[in-house]
Every structure is written in structure tokens, then in C-alpha cells.
Amino acid sequence: MRPLNTMTRRELEAYIGEKREGMRKAEMMGVENEYRVLERQVLIAESYFVDLSLIEPGKIYKIISNEDHYFKVEYIKGIFAWGFFVGGEEKETGIPVSMLQLTKRG
């Protein structure tokens, strides 16, 4: 398989579709760990569709699909936002930018 960063939009969409199908099957079979791995692969692939100019270092963003989780972005490296979960006790961590709830400028 080619690296995700070399794929066209269409190829990424097909890749995401395959992984989502795998997630559906894993969920039906009750294989939680496989589901989580595939879910992470989808989040990483979807990050290539994110307009990185919408992410501002120092700003706090809501995490998509997690009601009360927020993430303060310190910097962007590739397709990962590095920073801290608000209220968390973790050290600096990186998350795929597709996990951040962004609003379009304008």
C-alpha cells in the first residue's frame, strides 16, 4: 500500500471506505481492539482533508464525537495537532487533526 500522503483524494476516499467497512464487520463480531485500530486509521486518513490553516496554535478546540473533551493546540506537525487535553493530567500528546471540531473562516 502507498503512503497516505501520496494518495489522491479519490484514493483516500476509497481507503476510508474500506476501513469503515472493516469497522462495521469488527463491530458486528464484537472485536473491540480491531475496531479501534481501524477507527484510528480512518481518523488519520481523514486528516489529509483538513485545511490546516483553520487551526490556530494556542486555541482550544472541542473534540468531535466526545461531548466534554477539549484540546489545546500548541503546534501542528504534519497531520497531527500537539498539545494537551483541557483538564487532563497527561503530558503533551498528538492527535489527528480530523478529531478537532473546526469552523470555517469567513
Task: Describe, in plain words, how this protein is organized in 3D.
The chain has 106 residues and is of the alpha+beta class. It has a four-stranded antiparallel sheet, with no helix packed on it. The protein has helices at residues 9-29, 32-46; strands at 60-62, 70-77, 80-85, 93-96.
Secondary-structure map:
Blueprint: H1 9-29, H2 32-46, E1 60-62, E2 70-77, E3 80-85, E4 93-96
Antiparallel strand pairs: 1-2, 2-3, 3-4
Assembly state: single chain
* Lateral strand order in the biggest sheet: 1-2-3-4
Distance between the termini: 38 Å
Query: Radius of gyration, Cα only, in angstroms?
Result: 15 Å
Helical element count? 2
The number of E-state strands comes to 4
Please tell me the overall pLDDT. 93
Largest sheet: 4 strands, antiparallel
What structural category characterises the helix and strand content?
A: alpha+beta
Form type: globular
What are the secondary-structure elements, in order, as H or E?
HHEEEE
User: Roughly what percent helix?
Assistant: 25-40%
Pfam families: DUF1811
InterPro entries: YfhH (IPR036289), YfhH-like (IPR014938)
Protein name: YfhH family protein
Organism: Salinicoccus sesuvii
Briefly characterize the structure.
The chain has helices spanning 9-29, 32-46, and strands at 60-62, 70-77, 80-85, 93-96.
What would the keywords be for this entry?
106 residues, alpha+beta, 4-stranded antiparallel β-sheet, 34% helix, 20% strand, YfhH family protein, YfhH-like
